[in-house]
Amino acid sequence: MKLKRMVMVLALVAMTGALLQGCGKGNNDKNSSPSASPSGTTSAAPSDEKVTLKVWGDLGNQAVLEEPFKKINAAFSAKYPNIKLEYDFAQNDQSLNVALQANELPDLFWVQGDKTAKMGEMVKNGFLKDLSSYNIDVSRFADSEKNYCSIDGKLYCSMPSFFDTNVVYFNKDIYEKNGIKSPATWDEFVQGLETLKAANVTPIALAGKSEWDRAWPIFAFAPAFSDAALKAAQVGEGKLTDPSIVEALQAFRDFADKGYFGKNFLAQDYAASQFAFTNGKAAAIIDGTWANATYVESGLNLGRFSIPNKEGKKIVQSSYSNFMTYAVASTSKHPDQAVKYIEFLNSLEAQQILEDAVGLVPTLKDIVAKDEGVKELAIFDEAGVNIYTVLTALSSPESNTADVLMKDVIPKLMTSAITGAEGAATLDKAAKYPTK
């Protein structure tokens, strides 16, 4: 049995965890939702015993989340003085994998719901506590948010309450100086990039060295060009070689070929790309809505827009934010108290603290948007699929199609080693389509 468990753990550790992105249809039973009492009652109050909960925060986003989580945790401690939190920004893919191998998880840690298959694998292998029996009040949340946190109709994490996508952040001063407006169509978008290039301004800063951050343009292009085709492929009614998918991949290569990412983007990491944008060396950057606070704090005359397609429709990749989606480890010695933290993260009080600090796009009507800039992030026509989630759904134990995109196709596209058609063919070969 020990050998069998080790094999399962190693298989789980080998899976690629996405740090941010991608809300898909998931692999859960969509006709069922997590248990909740009809009256919306919450779990039983923990005893007066003084306990300490070890909680891991998102190390990769510590700069954004440190201040709001200080306030969230202080508010929780004021409400539950007998529960001490040891909250450390200690979690990334590596530390989580080590903890899984050693079976030494903290009491609570953040998960990505149905964005990737990893939460489902952790459930399958017994690492997460089923929260359904606690009758947690989920009445404020939509079915899609409940499904994000559920495996086979059972609840495993706190609810998402914010929406993530990729947008173009741009320097309004540079755009106005060059007579460029926020584009209404794809052609207007490209024409603006040509104008900037002719003026010797790098149109878009790109972190070519960073596996995830260099992927954001494709994450934005994919739904704009090929939302319907990706949806069809995910359910086995289409192929990844669809012309619209080819076009999205080719657009990324074209941007590299035409110099829209500048001359030295291949050697540039995320911090350097952000610095190029915030210091006026580049006119724009394609990044997530989760990074909004960073660009606001830079003091730029900041603008934002979602990329339009050729018809002028703005279809963006959809993703629930995992900034507040935490699970309880099955090994926690204090599950009742840990559930109280889950419930607090589900509360408007905690959610408003995060919104006031970071400025995310709320999915719940009672969360008040931080400012007009947040409202600008939410200007789009349709929330489409996330290409990473689609490719994860088309993966198999023998071939991780999402990894093929990130580690093979994207690097070759941005170095002009393959065409969009060749990239699509590579993905098609790696995919395992569902059978009818």
UniProtKB/TrEMBL annotation:
InterPro entries: SBP. GO terms for biological process: maltodextrin transmembrane transport; maltose transport. GO terms for molecular function: maltose binding. Keywords: Signal, Transport. Residues 1-20 form the signal peptide. GO terms for cellular component: ATP-binding cassette (ABC) transporter complex, substrate-binding subunit-containing. This is Sugar ABC transporter substrate-binding protein. It comes from Cohnella abietis. The lineage of its organism: Bacteria, Bacillati, Bacillota, Bacilli, Bacillales.
